[in-house]
Amino acid sequence: MTSPPIATRTDALWSFGALLRRDVRVMRRELPFFLLRVTLQPLLMVFVFGFLLPRMNFMKAGYAGALLPGVLAISLTLSSVMSVALPMVTDFGFTGEIEDRLLAPIPMEFVAAEKVFGGIVQGLIAALFLLPVARLIMGPVAGLSVASFGVVLLLTTLGAAAFSTFGLWLGTAISPQQIGLMFGVFLTPLIFFGCTYYPWQGLTVLPVMKYLVLLNPLVYVSEGMRAAITPSLPHMPLALVIVALVAITTLFWFLGIRTFRKRAIS
Amino acid sequence: MRGEHAFRHHTQQKRAMGSIQTHGLRKVYAPPTPRRAKGAPPPQGVVALEGLDLEVNDGEFFGLLGPNGAGKTTTIGILTTRVMATAGTAFVAGKDVIRDPVAVRRRIGVVPQRPNPDRQLRVLENLIFHSAYFGITKAAALPRATALLEQFGIAEKAEAKVETLSGGQQQRLMIVRALMHEPDLLFLDEPTVGLDPQARHDLWDILRAQHKAGRAIVMTTHYMEEADALCERVAIVDRGQLLAVDTPAALKARAPGGTLIEITVDGDAAPLAAEAKTLPGVLRAEAEGPVARIYAQGGGEPVAALVRAADACGRAVTNIHLAPPSLETLFISLTGRKLE
Predict the structure, then answer these.
(1) Whole-number mean pLDDT of chain A?
(2) Do B308 and B320 touch, CB atoms closer than 8 A?
(3) Mutation to test the A interface, candidates B102, B108, B163, B184, most A Cβ within 10 Å
(4) How is chain A split among helix, strand and coil, in percent rounded to 5?
(5) Distance (Å, whole) CA B165 – CA B154
(6) Alpha carbon of A171 to those of A109, A181, A254, B257: distances in Å?
(7) How far apart, in whole angstroms, are the C-alpha atoms of residue A235 and residue A232?
(8) CB-CB contact of A127 with A70 (8 Å)
(9) Closest CB from A15, A97, A104 relative to B116
(10) Does ipTM surpass 0.90 in this model?
């Protein structure tokens, strides 16, 4: 090494910033599509379950509030997974577009880390966009106050981190031909068994499932949101949720970086 | 032998900018891992490189010539830090590609086999962001990008989406991109495949100018005339091995005989080859299926006699091909196969 380590570090951070600016440029162009993609499904859910069904008297009005944590969880995790996994699949795919970034004078882990960082930001944007809209449609939600906002923000960040690293692994582990599989077989069960529509405690009716779903990272995001927004409903302790999300993020970062390296270097 | 070793040792120590040294470079690609039956032998990996030793000098225009699957792309992949060598060492611009890939990437520009621009960015943005990855500010990159786009004849496309560029324009964009951070070494992997003759000659001019400006260029190709026209030295590789490396002129001088006469007949060519060996002016003759390859002194004088000989063997001539002494005749004599 001829150049001093300090100079190298500064350069790497600069390059990291450049990768980030590139993603911001691309995202700014796609922002309307992005918001549509990540929020249409949760918005429809909020509309049907939170507005329509209560009006039809199919459902108690209270269920709407119970639904919001799960809707928020789905929205932020989906946007985080997709913002990392989809570019990974296409950039590493037939076009090989990522090569220019892999040939940048920085360790390849930085390229992966930047995508994860971008995924967290997109998860935050999705959640922050959804919250006021949900409030408009459903009316006031008891737990949704300025005080709980800090906790929501923390959980959104942790949940987005867990699902961005999960997206890194998913996007580099599957081949482009299996991209349909990703949605149908991977994400759909994740959502339905993610304690998004019901609290985890409710699964006591089916004990096997109650413990099986603990493998699903979405469970912790939903339960954490429940703890923050609807604390009167049964939920996991917040500390447990935070520990679990940090552990999941760490696990999928190491799994993801392994598969990323396999795709980046043959 | 000892002298050669000492020379190599010396150049390895020097590790001049823009130069390449590889030693015993070997690459075995892991086999795909499908389910295999119990007791089946473990699948064998694909050997792409079989102990490659290469030296590229400062500022040299160097060609890697060989058929598809010879190991050219793997060699470029290792030298550009995208392929991990199974064994051996490689230094690029004085830096170890395995231990210090970041330092290598800083000094090289890479033009891929297939254009892979960032399709979500416009043409100029591709160049500005590429420069930013290399720590160059937009203020510094913009005039350079504009000048290069102008020089390469795609200035009017600066704000266009990359998919509106033709194949040749995308290829040129890839070269401009590789030049943005002023690399010491430029790698090009089969840069002229798929280009029409005009675009190919334009590219040749561009590469000559870059070389004249002091840049080392390493290029793979399976076109003989391309290696001959551009490269100061050419390495002929086949099946992961280095067969010969020298200047095109010296390599051509090593080609057996003056002219290669290829005669295709409507049957086995072996009797014709045997007969050809008895003719005056024929240095060497061999047969492969219906093709007889005759290396003759001087030009194509023995052709008439060869056609008569084919007649005498009861074979009708279906095709005659004359190749003057060239890298092609050398390649065929080294491998017994044609390049394409």
Answers:
(1) 84
(2) no
(3) B102
(4) 80, 0, 20
(5) 9
(6) 15, 12, 14, 57
(7) 9
(8) no
(9) A97
(10) no
